[in-house]
Amino acid sequence: MADFLLIHGACHGAWCWRDLIPALTALGHGARAIDLPGNGADTTPHDQVTLAASGAAVLAASTPETIVVGHSWGGFPITAAAEADPKGLRALVYLCAYFPSETGLSMVDMRKRAPRQPILEAVQRSADGLSMTVVPALAPGLFYNDCTPEQAAWATARLCPQALKPQAEPITITERYASLPRSYILCRNDGTIPPEFQDEMTRDWPRDRVHELPTGHSPFLSDPQGLAALLSRIAEAG
């Protein structure tokens, strides 16, 4: 059975995997989640949060047998971890996530390449310019559009400010990152990262490495059993 490490997206924390972890363990897998620097219960000041530190947090929680799943913005920290030490983990899974299509790009660069950016109207910058939050009234439509009202309210209440610095930092990728197996899970009803942009990002990927779910941006809440089953199949495929 596989060992999964779950990495959250922007403004989220380890809490968002609440329903997926038991779904994976019910299938016999190991599963755990962490808070990235500055998110969830981690108290790193936002001016000290970097992409490298986020990648280091992923590596610190991984083993050479770990399949690392990165959601949304979490695609960049897991890529940074793989580039820093590809032997420190087993494989990467991008869950409706941004990932660098070439070296020298930041997550902000990748987001700007999308044909539309639904999240922009919901973003509020902090007075010091170091972080951003999501307008609570707009979060359900962005992140939880196919969740129950109870799930959406539970998750929205737990959203936290997101450090902006690491999302604007360019990442370097080489054959070190490219040496690892990687898979992508495209969410066809995503309200945050346009599905057509997910298609574009994965256009050159081997077709057996691109999978789909008919869900919104947060299948770990709206369909944890379906997501767990798909991750299990990805793990079995190697």
Given this structure, which CATH class is correct?
Alpha Beta
**Strand element count:** 9
Task: Return the domain count.
Answer: 1
How would you write the strand order of the largest sheet?
Answer: 2-1-3-4-8-9
Radius of gyration: 16 Å
CATH homologous superfamily caption = Alpha/Beta hydrolase fold, catalytic domain
Uncertain runs: none
CATH architecture, by name, is: 3-Layer(aba) Sandwich
What is the CATH topology descriptor? Rossmann fold
Fraction of residues in helix: 25-40%
Give a short account of the largest sheet.
6 strands, parallel
| β-strand amount | 15-25%
The mean pLDDT is: 97
Measured distance between first and last alpha carbons: 11 Å
What does this structure look like?
- InterPro entries: AB_hydrolase_1, AB_hydrolase_fold, Sec-Metab_Biosynth_Hydrolase.
- This protein is 33% helix and 17% strand.
- The protein has 238 residues and is an alpha/beta fold.
- The protein has one domain (3-237): Alpha/Beta hydrolase fold, catalytic domain (Rossmann fold), CATH 3.40.50.1820.
- Strand 8, helix 9 and strand 9 (210-213) form a beta-alpha-beta unit.
- Helix 1 packs across helix 11 and helix 2 (51-60) crosses helix 3 (75-84).
- The model has no long low-confidence stretch (mean pLDDT 97).
Short description:
The chain has 238 residues and is an alpha/beta fold. Helix content is 33%, strand content 17%. Helix 9 links the parallel strand 8 and strand 9.
Protein traits:
AB_hydrolase_1; alpha/beta; 238 residues; AB_hydrolase_fold; AB hydrolase-1 domain-containing protein; Rossmann fold; three-stranded antiparallel sheet; Sec-Metab_Biosynth_Hydrolase
